[in-house]
Amino acid sequence: MRDYIIEKLYECTKKPYQKFFKQNKPWEVDKETLLNYPKGSLGNSLGNFLNENHFDMQPKLEDHDVIHVLTNTGISVTDEIGMQYYLLGNGKRSMYLFLVIFSGTPFYPKQIRYFIEQYKRGKKAHPFYYLNFSNMLLVPVKTIQHIFNI
């Protein structure tokens, strides 16, 4: 039930966030194109992530899925909250990040160790959340992870 509540909260806030707060332009690439990038590249890995999870590209929110790929984070509700803790540790500050952390954490008190662990992982990585990932689609994921200590 709590997963359902959090997922509904996310669905209700996604469209307004996308429209009013995300200033970047949508990527001009689709999932099928990404799947044709070289194996191991960020583009191909993103395409595989989207395909395996039955997702499509979400305009202006593409970076979110890239972060999943780079940090090897799953898609469960606790994974999503954990990823926001990771990004907080990495230096990101956004209204959405705080919304997820402050609204999600109370629903999962038994996961607090996991969330703290994710925060510490984000602190250890070099800041990367701000990168223009659309220009990095040909770069191997392992190279990005190595350079940024992800």
What gap, in angstroms, lies between the N and C termini?
Answer: 33 Å
Q: Please work out how many helical segments DSSP would assign.
A: 8
Overall shape: it is globular
Q: Compute the gyration radius: what is it?
A: 15 Å
For the largest beta-sheet, the strand count, sense and barrel status come to: none
The proportion of residues in beta strands is under 5%
Parts with pLDDT < 50 across at least 5 consecutive residues: none
SSE order, one letter for each helix or strand:
HHHHHHHH
Measured as a percent range, the helix fraction is: 55-70%
* Total strand segments: 0
Mean pLDDT: 91
Which structural category fits the helices and strands?
A: mainly alpha
- Quaternary state, please? single chain
Short description:
The protein is built from 8 helices and no strands.
Overview of the molecule:
The chain is mostly helical and 150 residues long. The protein has a domain at 57-150. The chain is 59% helix and 0% strand. The protein has helices at 2-21, 31-35, 42-52, 62-71, 77-89, 95-104, 112-124, 141-147. Helix 3 (42-52) packs across helix 4, helix 5 packs across helix 6 (95-104) and helix 5 runs parallel beside helix 7. The model has no long low-confidence stretch (mean pLDDT 91).
